[in-house]
Amino acid sequence: MFHPHSxxxxxxxxxxxxxxxxxxxxxxxxxxxxxxxPAYQSCAFxxxxxxxxxxxxxxxxxVSYGNRYCTKFEMDQGELSxxxxxxxxxxxxxxxxxxVPTVTAEKQVSCNQLSRRxxxxxxxxxxxxxxxxxxxxxxxxxxxxxxxxxxxxxxMFKVAGSAQPIN
Length: 167
Known about the structure:
Distance between the termini: 55 Å
Largest sheet: none
Oligomer: single chain
């Protein structure tokens, strides 16, 4: 018997696969043409490009982390100030852009390597996009959006070590 979340995930994966098949495909990789330049303010890259190419499944980075938190931030962006929203969209674009070379490369890496490359880009993208300059209210909102379970994830501690103290 399927768990409701498993059934929903299966539906999302099937729909994203149909979308990829019916979109313009890159003749070299077989991926949607937009995989080499993810759209700003869109979470489609994780399912239509990264998951379509690597098929890491419901526990792999593209589905369980990349798409999950991208869509969560997208849905909860009302909790952020205008500066926080700009930071959010810039981070999303940066995270996707840093995965483009791996996702579109002729030679595939393992799902674990994909995950490592993705997590390794988080501190850079968070700080580069201005995390340390955000007001306290946005930092609190970001913590609320991410939730405790993601903060416990050991990879997230890299972000804290990359930020400069606010004077």
